[in-house]
Every structure is written in C-alpha cells, then in structure tokens.
Amino acid sequence: MKTDINLSNLINEIREVAFKENSNFWRRIAKELEKSTRRQREVNIEKINKYTKDKEIVIVPGKVLGNGELDHDVTIAALKFTEPAKKKLKNTLTIKELLKKEPKGKNIRIIG
C-alpha cells in the first residue's frame, strides 16, 4: 500500500482510464508505479537521448536524472524530475498530463 496519497490517487486515475480505454499500456504504467520507491526506475537524460528519436513521446515511471544532454526534440513524462534534469529539458509533462493528452497510450515509449 502506497503511503503517498498523491501517488495512490494517480495510480487509481490511471487504472480508471486503462479500464475505460481498454489500454494495456496504462495498466503496465500503473503496475510500475506501484513498485516500492527503491525499485522504481531512474533514468539519465543520456539514456533517453540514446534510445529515442526526434519528436517522440516517452514516459519514465520513476525519476529522470540530469546526467547527459538531449540533442533532439523529445517530450518526456515522468513521476519526478531532478532539478538538473528540469533545467536541461524543455518538453516535460507529468504522468497525469500525459494521461489526459494520450488516454489510449498510443505511440508512447517506456524508458527505464
């Protein structure tokens, strides 16, 4: 059971959309977010740069760290961003914002 009420609410909201839209993508994201904080993904900008293409949308069900540079246009949604990562990235979203924008979960890549 998650003690962070905001995270619990986010997981419930994701589950509702996943059920409504019959989206396995969002079911998987909800499952990832339920993991303990120790097991949540942490991804450096360097890795996002390496495994993405220009104009792609990616989601990190965890934290984005500030190591590395991004040399193309990528929209990144994550649970958390470190301060250095926030300073380096232009196109960032919360997972909740991405859920509203892409309720079907199409054309989104999971990184981490």
Word description of this protein:
- The model has no long low-confidence stretch (mean pLDDT 93).
- The chain has one domain: Ribosomal Protein L15, Chain: K, domain 2.
- Strands 1, 2, 3, 4 and 5 form a five-stranded parallel beta sheet that branches.
- The protein contains five helices and five strands; from the N terminus they run ααβαββαβαβ.
- It has 112 residues and is of the alpha/beta class.
- The longest helix is centred in the first third of the chain and has 17 residues, at 5-21.
- The protein is globular and about 35 Å long.
- Helix 1 runs antiparallel to helix 2.
- 42% of the residues lie in helices and 25% in strands.
- The chain has helices at 5-21, 24-33, 45-51, 83-88, 95-101; strands spanning 41-44, 56-65, 74-81, 92-94, 108-110.
Tell me briefly what this model is.
This protein has helices at residues 5-21, 24-33, 45-51, 83-88, 95-101; strands at 41-44, 56-65, 74-81, 92-94, 108-110. With 112 residues, the chain is of the alpha/beta class.
Number of domains: 1
Largest sheet, described in full? 5 strands, parallel
Order of helices and strands: HHEHEEHEHE
Distance between the termini: 23 Å
Low-pLDDT ranges: none
Output the CATH class name: Alpha Beta
Q: How does CATH name the architecture? A: Ribosomal Protein L15, Chain: K, domain 2
Alpha carbon gyration radius: 13 Å
Tell me the number of helical segments per DSSP (H or I, 4 or more residues long).
5
Tell me the number of strands: 5
Class inferred from helices and paired strands: alpha/beta
Strand content: 25-35%
Sum up the overall morphology in one term: globular
The mean pLDDT is 93
Would you tell me which CATH topology applies? Answer: Ribosomal Protein L15, Chain: K, domain 2
What is the share of helical residues? 40-55%
